[in-house]
Every structure is written in structure tokens, then in C-alpha cells.
Amino acid sequence: MAYVRKNQRDLTAAERRKFVHAVLELKRSGRYDDFVRTHVKYYTADGEDGLRVAHMAPSFLPWHRQYLLEFERALRAVDPTVTVPYWDWTRDNTPAASLWGDDFLGGNGRKGDHQVMTGPFAYARGDWPITVGVTENRFLTRNFGNPANPVGLPTRQELAAAEKETVYDSAPYDSTSRTGFRNALEGWGRASGTGRWRTHNRVHRWVGGLMLGGASVNDPVFWLHHSFIDLVWSRWQRKNPRAGYLPATHPPLGSSQRGRVVARDEPMPPFRATPASVADHHRLYRYE
Fold it and tell me: 187: closest CA among 59, 275, 55, 67?
């Protein structure tokens, strides 16, 4: 029977406690940092050599669906009643939103070093040292809205514009793809300034701190953000049942993307799963 992923705002106090406990238990065991290392390893940009699976590529959505499933399975090994909730940032779009409460994810970072001082993931609590990061800091950081160069969370209208795309992806299948749902949702744009960051990417920019870059998994809000991204993709799949994953086969010889992107039936390292194998999640979980 499929289990349910809930909107974080609908979680009971007990469900919040169970989720936090399971995440902290993964951290204590070292398993959580393994997930951080995986994301860092597979965060490959357009300008780098080799296969891209996690970002700036068609497999952005299926790769993160499988990644989220692996994390959820680890949580459920701790407590089988736990699932990964989602954060609808078009609705809960202020620092006063419930997910930033002291009993859940904690709040914004303080001025100066942006260290998070509240909630169960505050460094002062002793349960959340950062050991896999891009800086020397051992503490979780956030900088909501980046006041020095302000950025807002995506609106419902902006998300709806991405959802209007009717093709999954388009050549050259990277951060410069001008059409297709994948890049419209991932959010690589051509505008200047903060306009470069759209949808998924802009949420990372808004949270700031450790949510920037490959080590963003160090902030537990990463999972709630990507659960919502997965929900949006699931919703888009229902509206566009004939619009399958692209590319279906390898890019042709001579293409700059040959050997750099995953085709529909190819494994997505480090997983055995393929884009085709994770296309339908309904036998495993559903959203409410």
C-alpha cells in the first residue's frame, strides 16, 4: 500500500517530532553525511567534463526522485511511520511560516555569520555539526532573502508558467535549454542579476547559507523543497501523459551532449534506477 507525503503545514506535533528524530538519528549514525557526499559528488555543472545526472540535465527530476526515495527509506528504517513532507514555497513564503518553527527546522541565521541559532539543527544543540561542506564552518547557515541583494521566493504565477510547458526537455539538454518543463522547473535562466534564478534554483537562493551549491543537503529543508519539486513533476505528468522523458535515446554522434546526459532507459549513477523506472511513483507513495 502506498504511503503518504503530507504538506509540512498539515503535520501534527507528533509527526514533526518523529521526522526530526529520524533525521537526527541518521546524522548521529553518519548515514546523513553519506547523502551529503552523494549530492556533492554528482553535482556536475555544464562546464565540467563527464556525465551529468543531478543538475543541468534532463535527469534532474528522476535523479532527485530516486535520491529522495533512498533518503526516505533510510528515515523509515528508523521509524516506519515517517515520510518526507513537502514545503509549498508559493504558499508558505515568509520567515514566519510554520516550517521554520523552533520545533521543526529552526529559523533564519543570525546577522554576521548567518549561523542558525534556533531549532533542533542549531549547532549549539550539539546534534548537527557540518562535516561535509564547502566552507570551514561547522554550523548550519541560512540567510533568508539575501538582504544584500534581495531575492524572493517563486510565486504561484511563476510556477504555473513553468507547468505550462508541454514537452519534458529540449536540446541541448543543459542549463541553456530554452524550452521544456525540466529547465523551466529547475530554473536556469538567461536574465541578469537575481532574474537568473527561477523556480527550484531561486528557492535555494532565498534560503541561502548552506543551501547554496552542491552541499545544500546539509540543510534539512533541502528534502522538503525537493519533495515539493517532485510533487510538481507528478502533477505535470498527470496533465501531460504523452510527454515522456527526453532524450529517449543517446544524443547523436557529434552532439556536445553525447555521453554527458542519461537517456530514458539508462541507469542514473550512483543508482541502478533509470528515468523510465521511476516515472510512476504511485505504487510507492502519493501526495496529499
Answer: 55
